Amino acid sequence: DTTRSFQKSKSICLSDFSDFTNNPVNGDCPLTNYLVWARDWCENIIVVLVCFFPITINILGGFDEIDKDELDLFKTMKASTKDLYLKLKIPYSLPYFFSGLKIATTYAVLGALIGEYMGGSYGLGIYISRAMRSYSALMVFGIIIVLVAMTLLLLLVVQLLEKLLIKYKTEENT
Question: Lowest-pLDDT range, 50-54, 64-68, 123-127, 158-162?
Fold first, then answer.
């Protein structure tokens, strides 16, 4: 019965997630400027919204990939919900979490850039808009190079965390 309720709530959440993610990010930022009392929070809200969905959808996909025999074994042994999550569901969903985190890392940089560009008062988004208005192609490309380097550095950190936390992942799986 809990599996059925989980599947039902998952289908409702995924349909809501897909509806929300179809909304363009550049349309969210002016809306958050009006809804949030501090304009400086616009970038943070956009980054959280953009990063939340890939991670959540991948974790839910990881929960679906759990071996049914192992799940039945835990139920037969009357494992508590805490043990079920700590010893079965979370270890199975960790690779999916990191897949979502890698996607969210690139989205975070782009979301922050768009948030700064649309409603921020400082940051690379403001600098890129100033450079575009002054027709400074070198500055625009310089900012793009900084953004690419920052994204690659963040992806490297996520990959290092993945290698540290997932001991059973072998080289042929990466």
Answer: 123-127
Please work out, in degrees rounded to the nearest 5, the angle formed at the alpha carbon of residue 14 by the alpha carbons of 11 and 19: 130
49 with 21: CB under 8 angstroms? no
- Quote the mean pLDDT of the chain: 78
Write phi, then psi, for 79 (nearest 5 degrees). -70, 145
**CA-CA distances (angstroms) from residue 85 to 63, 65, 97, 158?**
10, 14, 14, 23
Q: How far is CA 28 from CA 2, 18, 21, 49, 142, in A?
A: 35, 15, 11, 10, 27
- Residue of 43, 48, 41, 55 lying closest to 13 (CA atoms): 55
Q: CB–CB of 118/125 below 8 Å?
A: yes
